[in-house]
Amino acid sequence: MRTILVTGGCGFIGSHTCLVLLEKGYRIIIVDSLINSSEEIINAIKSNVKVPSFTEDNLIFRRGDIRDKLFLENVFKEERRRNMPINLVIHFAALKAVNESVQNPIEYWNNNVLGTINLIEVMSKNDCFKFVFSSSATIYKPMLNKQICEDSEIGPINPYGNTKLAIEKFLSDLFRSNSNKWKIVSLRYFNPVGAHNSGNLGENPKGIPNNLFPILLKVALKKQDYLRVFGNDWPTKDGTCVRDYIHVMDLAEAHVSALNYLNETKPNIIGINIGTGTGQSILEIIETFKKVNNCDLPFKFIDRRPGDAPYVVANNSLALKTIKWIPSRNLEDMCRDSWNYAKKQNTIMHKI
Ligand code: NAD
Ligand code: UD1
Fold first, then answer.
1. Per DSSP, which regions of 125-194 are E strands?
2. Using one digit for the tens of pLDDT, what is the confidence trace for 51-64?
């Protein structure tokens, strides 16, 4: 059985990916400090695995911080001792709140960049050279009404984005230092939303949410009076910002495709956009959410948010071609599944 280390596996994207990996028969070690998640997720993942071959030993949780090298060394050592060495790492663990990164760049660079360097160092010592990195569309410079390709201009505009770009550059240097060993895929996610259709896994960040969907769900749950839409005078189809929203289960499946690719390819490094290739405006999201879920979603237009871009949409043809991944869920699925999750978790969702 193939053992994979998943850092940040209790988080939003990590938890959905772990579920998909377990259903594909992988054995998983989750390392998470729980700085933005909780241990209950482990049981939620386990209870949703629907394959009869699944046993408790297929999912192991080790609470710890990836900046703690000794702890990481022990995780690798323990699996070698069991004769099930870790031979691939999917690296989700990171801090991701843009505002927070502006206020506290030290913490962001320390956690995201130092954490990744530590992890790579321990992997290398343990002869583990396959790596899937959670990168972001935020590394690109936005272009008006033009899809973003992998070779589009780079230009993050906040410390969070800078940490993602710094890690990608570090990974390139690493690959060049030993180009017949490392196999590295950086998946550049666009806007992940939605939830597992059981309603047991979803996005429930600690602290004050900044992203559209967690806020929109609070409004639908009547925990916030209205959604503040940042600007209606953008040069887009209806004046509101356009993004490439992607269902988190499609994104989870992209990781399985990336693993298959890494297992087959020769040593290589590649950055791949993971988006649907289509853009939706905020007004389209609001309308679809209301229609699909038959609920109210009050909103008010306010000023533009500093740092926002009008149009961020992926050209996803490299993903389709290289890792042979195709997203299959649409905006209605994203709205339906996220609302199902929010209703089910209503009592435990963190208050703002
Ligand atoms: P999340 O906060 O839900 O999950 C991240 C997990 O990592 C959390 O469980 C957190 O506790 C853990 N973690 C953070 N720092 C850690 C550390 N030093 N050691 C161990 N565990 C640590 O975030 P997410 O939305 O699931 O994002 C996963 C990854 O995808 C991140 O790297 C993020 O930057 C990237 N990403 C997310 C988005 C998005 O919109 N959600 C978009 C692009 C890229
Ligand atoms: C933001 C970050 C980006 C990060 C991504 C995922 C900024 C400028 N960019 O991207 O670096 O990779 O999150 O974490 O913060 N919106 C509203 N009202 C709200 C919230 C959002 O109208 O209350 C709008 C925004 O203007 C945007 C869209 O909804 O047009 C999506 O916003 P958000 O979820 O924050 O994602 P991004 O802005 O794409």
1. 130-136, 183-189, 191-193
2. 988 998 999 999 99
Provide the strand spans (E) within the chain.
Answer: 3-7, 27-32, 59-63, 86-91, 130-136, 183-189, 191-193, 227-230, 242-243, 245-247, 268-274, 280-281, 299-302, 311-312
SS3 label, residue 267: coil
Cα 3 to ligand 2 centre (Å): 35
Ligand 2 pocket check for 215: Cβ under 6 Å: yes
Q: What is the pairing mode between strands 86-91 and 130-136?
A: parallel
pLDDT tens per residue across span 259-300: 999 999 999 999 999 999 999 999 999 999 999 999 999 999
Distance, CA 8 to ligand 2 centroid (Å)? Answer: 21
pTM over 0.90: yes
Q: Alpha-carbon distance 18 to 9, whole Å?
A: 7
Check if the beta carbon of residue 256 is closer than 8 Å to that of residue 20.
yes
How many whole angstroms separate alpha carbon 136 and alpha carbon 240?
22
